[in-house]
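Practice problem: predict the structure.
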Amino acid sequence: MDTQQLPPLIAQPADSNSEDHRRNCLAWHLLSRRTRTEVQEWLRQQPVVLRSDMRVRLNRLREQLKDMREAARP
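Answer:
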């Protein structure tokens, strides 16, 4: 994926210095740089609250990527 084409969750942060944005960036890093197995293993190592929060973020980013790919089809 072109670096210019980032999902809205990453490209349009409400506050780029917030904990929320940091976690969104972490989710983006995990999705774009790690295998599904590596992400699952990383999630298993996290406290329950963080694990739950990151699952929501990862799923939201996956949906945004899916929507972007569908919109880019001719």
